[in-house]
Design brief:
about 140 residues; 5 strands; Trna Endonuclease, Chain: A, domain 1; alpha/beta
Amino acid sequence: MVVRFPHFTKEEAEVLERFQKSRMLSGEWMYDVRLVSKKLEWVKYKEEPWYRLWLKVTAKRIDAVCIDEAYVNIIEVKRYMLASGVGQLLLYKKMYQEQYKPKKPIRLWLIAYYPDPDVIELCDELGIATWSVVKL
């Protein structure tokens, strides 16, 4: 299965495809899951099409979510394993809990083509799972 989104690079799409083929997770997959930003409150014109446009441009976008038997897995995909991905995941978890109120615990995943041992160490401390195509 090839997943393509306008904001995915070719490498990011390949990373997600390889991750899925690794069978690390199995369950119901959703892609480009949108989270409503509190910036939406700033919009002065609640009429269409402005409101819908503002909703779209301010939404946070989770790359992938896989709901398995035990967890809601929130997955951030990067070409390079970056510290910024850790911050994204922490924000996505908070927003997902507020907006979707899942009945299962949330597990975070940072997956990348190229690993970074410093980021992996931080993820381990924060309980964020990591996976990369290139192995250390």
